[in-house]
Amino acid sequence: MSGVLVVGSVALDSVETPFGARDEVLGGSATYFSMAASYFSPVQVVGVVGSDFPDSHVELLQKRRIRLDGLTKAEGRTFRWKGRYCDQMNEAQTLDTELNVFDTFKPVLPGDFRKTPFVFLGNIDPVLQGEVLDQIESPKLVAADTMNFWINGKNADLKATLRRVDLLFVNDAEARALSGERNTVSAAKKILTMGPRAVVVKRGEYGAMLLDAEGFFALPAYPTEKVCDPTGAGDSFAGGFMGFLASVGAVTPAALRQAVAMGTVLASFTVEGFSLDELSRVTLERARERFECLRRMMRLAELPERIEFQSI
Amino acid sequence: MSGVLVVGSVALDSVETPFGARDEVLGGSATYFSMAASYFSPVQVVGVVGSDFPDSHVELLQKRRIRLDGLTKAEGRTFRWKGRYCDQMNEAQTLDTELNVFDTFKPVLPGDFRKTPFVFLGNIDPVLQGEVLDQIESPKLVAADTMNFWINGKNADLKATLRRVDLLFVNDAEARALSGERNTVSAAKKILTMGPRAVVVKRGEYGAMLLDAEGFFALPAYPTEKVCDPTGAGDSFAGGFMGFLASVGAVTPAALRQAVAMGTVLASFTVEGFSLDELSRVTLERARERFECLRRMMRLAELPERIEFQSI
């Protein structure tokens, strides 16, 4: 088995933004992740949906050759999330969450999934994240996402999982809450003492920051003018990141930086439409163009030999 | 006359941050600007102080060979600002502002200041910014700062001044307010239709963005762990930017990008102490080191020829 394994939610989302509203459209962290990763690498999904989950959604994912053998269909309703983004769309306001079949979700990996080299633990209970790792055999890289709900509510469990994780995705507020540091730079450094050997801080419209053994790397967001719906941006980021890394096959400092950029690119497509509308229409040519645009945005020449005008 | 001319406030600041408090210390936009610029280029200051302004502050600036012939000493008290930063220190909460002698300030340029090639119009009334430009003879580059107070209160005057400005410094909120655009990328593009041929969006801990004829450039903040007092960061940024550009002498796309980085570096020193404590201790060696650190943080390798794993 090659490629990437993802465990996380597959959901039906209802969302309102200044650009419109959508009702019960395809969503969920594992969904965005797997679609983004599928452009670069084979993807295996572990999750659960209810008996009401539309076949058309399954087909959309299967068309991208995403393996759904680990996606259980349970009696009951699919996980639902309802949210709203106002004005600057930095943060979602959650209006309603129905766990439904996700409430009793127990991740069970089909036998041939257990040898997947790149593993992404979506934003679920850290105890379940640990149970996934128990089923995985000698992975090349384990990455995880988390959120303040687990940082505050299941801190000890989360810390136990973190000791088994190579790379953590967080946002600024999560980095601060997890580390107890006010300063994001200090927070990222502290997280590297908690297990992960790399941390990626996702900053929405401000881009992303990576800290690993090589030091800091920072990347702006892709300069899109068309932010329609930010739902799934973080998971698309992680999917692009992990899919790209799996396609390279080796976790080198240079590849990690390229993975941050590719994650940024995939997230930029996601926010330009509702649900997976734009993400599902990505081509490698378009991804490569945006990657090159980011590279151009970061071009900075060396200083001249002499810059001072006088010595004081 | 060579170098940079700055018009703006010279002030006594009282500030509280989570790291301590200082009472009536040296501050003001022209002060931070001129100190930062002085590492690269001759600087001429136009401003006003009251009869209570301490000689020691004048001496600090003169030691850096900053020319103060345009700094009038008027009867009365110096401009005072009192503010507080809480928690994440993103934004100052103004507790008190006393304009004092600054209230009737009329910028008058000493004869030999009028030929300064690089001009920075600090954050003052746009009518006064225009009066400075009336006194300037064939500048190489005119840059300006502004704020929501003028964007909202003197919009027509500001727009008249902007038509005479080559480069505008703003933050995200100012860019949006000035342009009427929700999206910062769209806002920056719109500002380029209002007069300036380049715009720099300052984003504090998230770095800075430049838009010019070459397209977008984005730079992270220097990853300092010691943010003690953000007062003057924006003006130090502008000072490092303009001083560096004046030392290069030519406004090329590559030099503009380097100037953004050098502005970022100078701002990083300012925030590490109160008042000008750290900014006044910068050396070119330390500035160069931080510049190189930023360059390393932005290193991103080209994509391999093939990244896809399958064609679908």
Give a nutshell description of this structure:
With 312 residues, chain A is an alpha/beta fold. Chain A has helices at residues 29-37, 55-63, 126-135, 148-153, 155-162, 172-179, 184-191, 233-248, 253-270, 284-297; strands at 4-7, 11-17, 20-27, 43-50, 67-74, 80-84, 93-98, 118-121, 141-145, 167-171, 198-202, 208-212, 215-219.
Provide the succession of SSEs of chain A: EEEHEHEEEEHEHHEHHEEEHHH
Strand content of chain A: 15-25%
Tell me how many strands of chain A there are. 13
CATH hierarchy, class of chain A: Alpha Beta
Instruction: Kindly report the greatest chain-chain contact and the residue count on each side.
Output: A-B, 60 and 60 residues
CATH topology of chain A: UDP-N-acetylmuramoyl-L-alanine:D-glutamate ligase
Q: Helix count of chain A, per DSSP?
A: 10
The CATH architecture designation of chain A is 3-Layer(aba) Sandwich
**What is the CATH superfamily of chain A?**
Ribokinase
Overall shape of chain A: it is globular
| Biggest sheet, spatial arrangement of strands of chain A | 5-4-1-8-9-10-11-12-13
Explain what this protein looks like in three dimensions.
- Two copies of one chain form a homodimer.
- The model of chain A has no long low-confidence stretch (mean pLDDT 95).
- With 312 residues, chain A is of the alpha/beta class.
- The first copy, chain A, has helices spanning 29-37, 55-63, 126-135, 148-153, 155-162, 172-179, 184-191, 233-248, 253-270, 284-297; strands spanning 4-7, 11-17, 20-27, 43-50, 67-74, 80-84, 93-98, 118-121, 141-145, 167-171, 198-202, 208-212, 215-219.
- In chain A, 34% of the residues lie in helices and 24% in strands.
- Chain A is globular.
- In chain A, helix 3 packs parallel to helix 5, helix 6 crosses helix 7 (184-191) and helix 8 (233-248) runs antiparallel to helix 9.
- Chain A has ten helices and 13 strands.
- Chain A has a single domain (4-297), classed as UDP-N-acetylmuramoyl-L-alanine:D-glutamate ligase (3-Layer(aba) Sandwich).
- Chain A has a nine-stranded mixed β-sheet, sandwiched between helices. Chain A has a four-stranded mixed β-sheet with strand order 3-2-6-7.
- At the A-B interface, helix 7, strand 13, helix 8, helix 9 and helix 10 of A face helix 7, strand 13, helix 8, helix 9 and helix 10 of B.
